[in-house]
Design goal:
CATH architecture: 3-Layer(aba) Sandwich
Structural class: alpha/beta
Oligomer: single chain
Helix content: 40-55%
Number of domains: 1
Strand content: 5-15%
Largest sheet: 7 strands, parallel
CATH class: Alpha Beta
Radius of gyration: 17 Å
Number of helices: 7
Strand order of the largest sheet: 3-2-1-4-5-6-7
Length: 246
């Protein structure tokens, strides 16, 4: 196959769905992974879908093998899949079960899928053998005491980015991170009124909700070679939330 091949987790909706479509529209072949049996959309282009759970080691290995069998190679990995706590509990009441569930997918799953994909990419030829993009969150640095396990998991994704950026630089594989802000997805639907109020009150310099498409645009540029000599970077797609203002 002449096209670059990207693996995208969380492909069945939200940011993952937008990333899949953005990459397909720009000439990539895409293998997507999600937990839904049936996709609510039919992507146009070279797309193959694998049903699996990022938190399951067997599913991670099977997904990589599936992509290799379908497309023959791996040129990019976009780690989108993530879960929020089922219940937003105060830090003093957070359960080990909730912590384990969130960390198993968001951090452990991301870490070991990246390891699998990286070990495939290093065998590619050329000065740049692949690209890896991790989707973390503003929660990687902004504390929310009612969902501590999620914040910890996303801070872990930031360190995964740094570690692999360092380790894979010798192979010409840049590893970068996109930190979405307040993005309109199913994950944020339950707190829409809260964030509507905060945005109206001046929380963001750019006073609107972000969209999955906003995030996908940044991912594309980190996957298509437009930003050479950039690795270990975090790009905030957050309407300016990260700015310290007086």
């Amino acid at each position: 196959m002449n096209k670059q091949v990207a693996l995208v987790t969380g492909a069945a909706g939200g940011i993952g769905f937008a990333v899949v479509n953005k990459l397909l529209q720009n000439g990539f072949a895409v293998a997507g992974m999600g937990r839904r049996d049936n996709l609510p959309f039919t992507p146009e282009g070279d797309f193959a879908y694998f049903v699996g759970d990022l938190g399951c080691s067997e599913d991670r290995r099977s997904f990589v093998a599936f992509a290799k069998e379908r497309f023959g190679r791996i040129d990019a990995l976009v780690n989108v899949a993530g879960v929020a706590p089922r219940v937003r509990a105060d830090l003093l009441a957070m359960t080990e079960e909730s912590y384990d569930t969130v960390m198993n997918v968001n951090t452990k799953g991301t870490l070991f899928l990246t390891q699998l994909a990286a070990n495939e990419m290093i065998h590619n030829e050329g000065p740049c053998r692949g690209h890896i993009v991790n989707i973390s969150s503003l929660s990687a640095y902004a504390a929310s005491a009612n969902r501590g396990e999620y914040c910890i998991s996303k801070a872990g994704v930031s360190m995964i980015t740094a570690l692999f950026a360092d380790r894979l630089a010798e192979y010409g594989i840049p590893v970068n991170e996109v930190r979405p802000g307040i993005i309109a997805t199913n994950m944020t639907a339950g707190v829409k009124e809260k964030y509507d109020r905060l945005i109206a009150g001046g929380l963001l310099p750019e006073a609107r909700w972000g969209t999955p498409e906003d995030v996908a645009c940044a991912v594309l540029r980190l996957c298509d070679g437009s930003l050479p000599y950039v690795t270990g970077q975090s790009i905030d797609v957050d309407g300016g939330f990260h700015l310290k203002r007086l």
